[in-house]
Amino acid sequence: MKTANKTDKAADKAPKAAAKPKVAFFDFASCEGCQLQITNIGELLLDVLGAVDVVEFREAISEKYDGDYDVVFVEGSIGDHHAEERLKKLRARAKVLIAYGACACTGGINALKNHTTDYKDFVYQKDARMPHLDSAKALPISAAIKVDYAALGCPVNKYEVLQIISHLLHGKEPVVPTWPVCVECKRRETVCRYAEGDHCLGPIARAGCTAPCPADGIPCEACRGLVEHANEAAMEKVLMQRAGFSKQRASSKSRMFAANCRADTVQEGAK
Ligand code: SF4
Ligand code: SF4
Ligand code: SF4
Fold it and tell me: Ligand 2 atom 8: the closest Cα is on which residue?
């Protein structure tokens, strides 16, 4: 008969290490640039991997996982019932689900197609009359499922993603900025694009990126979507008066990353 020796008994009594949260990444209609941001985190990625167990992440590992997930990051917009069904299955297996990047949060740049038809000829050429293109709208994932948190941006800001992961690991609510990009721009003492005779969407764009674009001498394009109650009409007037844009160009400027967010074009289920 086998008897436990002293070492076995000590091992039995030792506290078991807590299992690391199981984290997975999935993509829908997207360029996958937001997933790449994770692989671009550099050395900090080692800290992340020390704290969580990444069980599925097609861009970095080939493993599959068939259990439930603690945290799921979903990149990309949805556009048909196949995507909706797949998304609902992921939601059913995820304790926490995060809309990851502008495409997932608002439809992002994909939502431009909701407001034009000429993209079909550019993109599909001889196949531009495929019937399913007429009904397919680019929608945020919140149009189909409950979303717990959002990591905004095109692409996401990797430090904000780390903040979200860190807050969740410590049982805290992630911080989601509600203020405009101008606040962060002033904080880093960047000369305003308007003072340089340029234009900028910073006054209506949602912050959280630390305003890198004006700091690099280029206008903010509101890639993180719009602040709540954004005064788009006033912004377009400023673009027309100060940047000399036509009404159409001013409107398309503020629509580029925020087509589904604008008060005049909001889509069903889009925030
Ligand atoms: S939000 Fe931008 S970077 Fe991220 S997947 Fe969509 S298009 Fe790509
Ligand atoms: S450069 Fe843009 S973001 Fe910065 S203060 Fe001026 S308008 Fe605001
Ligand atoms: S400054 Fe504007 S365009 Fe640049 S990352 Fe921030 S929200 Fe996006």
Answer: 182
Is there a cis peptide before residue 219, judged by omega within 30 degrees of 0?
no
The reply to whether the predicted model has a pTM over 0.70 is yes
16: Cα within 13 Å, side-chain hemisphere: 4
Tell me whether residue 13 is exposed, middle or buried, using C-beta atoms within 10 angstroms of its C-beta: 0 to 12, 13 to 18, 19 or more: exposed
Q: Give residue-wise pLDDT tens across range 67-120.
A: 999 999 999 999 999 999 999 999 999 999 999 999 999 999 999 888 877 778
Q: Are 28 and 78 in contact (CB under 8 A)?
A: yes
114: DSSP letter: G
Mean predicted confidence (pLDDT) in 4-15 = 53
> Ligand 2: distance of its center to the CA of 30 in Å?
28
| 39 alpha carbon – ligand 1 mean position (Å) | 15
Q: Take atom 1 of ligand 2 and give the residue whose Cα is closest.
A: 192
For residue 150, the CA-to-ligand 1 centroid distance in Å is 13
Ligand closest to the CA atom of residue 198:
2
Evaluate: CB of 103 within 6 angstroms of ligand 1. Answer: yes
Provide φ and ψ at 217, rounded to 5°: 85, 20
Note the helical H segments in the chain: 6-13, 33-39, 44-51, 81-93, 102-106, 119-124, 132-135, 158-169, 181-187, 212-215, 232-242, 247-255
Q: Catalogue all structural domains in the chain, each as residue range(s) with its CATH number.
A: 22-169 (3.40.50.700), 181-258 (no CATH)
- Half-sphere CA count of 108, side-chain side, radius 13 A: 30
Q: Which residue has the tokens 């945020």?
A: 140
Ligand 2 interacting residues, C-beta cut-off 6 A: 181-182, 185-186, 190, 192-194, 200, 202-203, 211, 214, 220
